[in-house]
């Protein structure tokens, strides 16, 4: 029997300058906030955040994020938060910071507020975290009983981040409908354990349509640090639509292959999450025998926003066949989602598709 589940954050707030509202939004969740950000992010937003919380009379403690969404980092931060007696956990920054903060809040059974400072991933809205080892190798997904209580996205701040990160969010978002369709076809389960709802599929499709329609012009605006209606639409697609879409409609091969890339060493790990997901999306499209022109459309769009479509751009052009098979083996692992595309796929099938994307991409004009 089908079982449909739809999960979402309690509240989503987006707009230019909304960081000034953070204190008033947090005041309904608790009295003392545990703030987590890396040094770069805190330098950018710290003074505005302090001012906003002080205006509301909220007490807070700031702690530096060490850079990896690992079990040891989660335990370290949770111990400090307990010692400080906080009752709201607030993450400011990118995907790994936000995934860590969700885990810390889960450990403490506290409310959690998410403040992305880049529109580079779909992590903010979800009730899960991607957990890595301290060395950055994919380990597992960690699931939570509820989504964040607040997601607050200041588009003016996001537009100041490097355009490469904005483009990476577009690439991450473009995987949403590609993977959702695979989950629906294979009658697999979403990330919240249900069949994809009509709403989830509609959101995933709207995400793809928004990004392909406005993604390039928004990217060019962010290169100039501008906030335009197209930028607002794409930030929403990168963050809210993609987040709701992937969680409620499910993941398949694109993100599993991204995770598989952690099986190899080298310069690939200097790439962003979205850059690796872009190549994973193309690899999934090859594995599911999408029409040539459909794959070519994605290749051309990725190129227009600077995303990698070749092994050279992925820094894997000299990788051995055995290492490509290792990527495929990790992607096909029991704890990942490649089986939602086809549980019969092998590590060698994935390795062949990775090479086929490179060959096809080089033929696209």
TrEMBL record:
Top-level taxon of origin: Bacteria
UniProtKB keywords: Metal-binding, NAD, Oxidoreductase, Zinc
Cofactor(s) needed for function: Zn(2+)
Binding site for glycerol: 122, 172, 255, 273
InterPro entries reported in the protein's UniProt record: ADH_Fe/GldA, Glycerol_DH
One Pfam family named in its UniProt record: Fe-ADH
EC number(s) given by UniProt: 1.1.1.6
Cofactor note: Binds 1 zinc ion per subunit.
Endpoints of the signal sequence: none
Binding site for NAD(+): 38, 95-99, 117-120, 126, 128, 132
Catalyses which reaction(s): glycerol + NAD(+) = dihydroxyacetone + NADH + H(+)
Molecular-function GO terms, alphabetical: glycerol dehydrogenase (NAD+) activity; metal ion binding
The protein's annotated pathway: Polyol metabolism; glycerol fermentation; glycerone phosphate from glycerol (oxidative route): step 1/2
GO cellular component: cytosol
PANTHER family per UniProt: GLYCEROL DEHYDROGENASE, GLYCEROL DEHYDROGENASE 1
The protein's name: Glycerol dehydrogenase
């Amino acid at each position: 029997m089908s079982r449909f589940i739809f999960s979402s954050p309690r509240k989503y707030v987006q707009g230019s300058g909304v960081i000034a509202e953070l204190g008033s939004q947090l005041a309904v969740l608790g009295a003392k906030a545990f703030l987590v950000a890396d040094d770069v992010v805190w330098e950018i937003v710290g003074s505005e955040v302090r001012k906003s919380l002080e205006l509301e009379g909220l007490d807070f403690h700031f702690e530096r994020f060490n850079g990896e969404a690992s079990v040891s980092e989660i335990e370290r931060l949770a111990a400090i938060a307990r010692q400080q007696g906080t009752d709201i956990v607030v993450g400011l920054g990118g995907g790994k910071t936000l995934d860590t903060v969700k885990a810390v809040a889960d450990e403490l059974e506290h409310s959690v507020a998410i403040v992305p400072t880049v529109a580079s991933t779909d992590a903010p809205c979800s009730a899960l975290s991607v957990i890595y080892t301290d060395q950055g190798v994919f380990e597992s997904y960690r699931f939570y009983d509820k989504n964040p209580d607040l997601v607050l996205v200041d588009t003016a701040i996001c537009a100041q981040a490097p355009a490469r990160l904005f483009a990476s969010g577009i690439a991450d978002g473009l995987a949403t409908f590609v993977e959702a369709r695979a989950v629906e076809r294979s009658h697999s389960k979403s990330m919240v354990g249900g069949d994809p709802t009509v709403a989830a599929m509609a959101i995933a499709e709207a995400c793809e349509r928004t990004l392909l329609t406005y993604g390039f012009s928004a990217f060019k605006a962010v290169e100039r640090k501008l906030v335009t209606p197209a930028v607002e639409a794409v930030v929403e697609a990168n963050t809210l639509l993609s987040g709701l879409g992937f969680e409620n409609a499910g993941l398949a091969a694109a993100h599993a292959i991204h995770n598989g890339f952690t099986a190899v060493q080298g310069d690939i790990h200097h790439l962003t999450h979205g850059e690796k997901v872009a190549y994973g999306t193309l690899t999934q499209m090859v594995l599911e025998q999408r029409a040539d022109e459909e794959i070519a459309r994605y290749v051309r769009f990725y190129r227009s926003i600077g995303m990698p479509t070749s092994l050279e751009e992925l820094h894997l052009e000299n990788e051995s066949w055995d290492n490509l098979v290792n990527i495929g083996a990790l992607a096909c692992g029991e704890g990942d989602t490649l089986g939602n595309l086809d549980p019969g796929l092998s590590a060698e099938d994935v390795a062949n598709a990775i090479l086929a994307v490179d060959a096809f991409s080089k033929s696209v004009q």
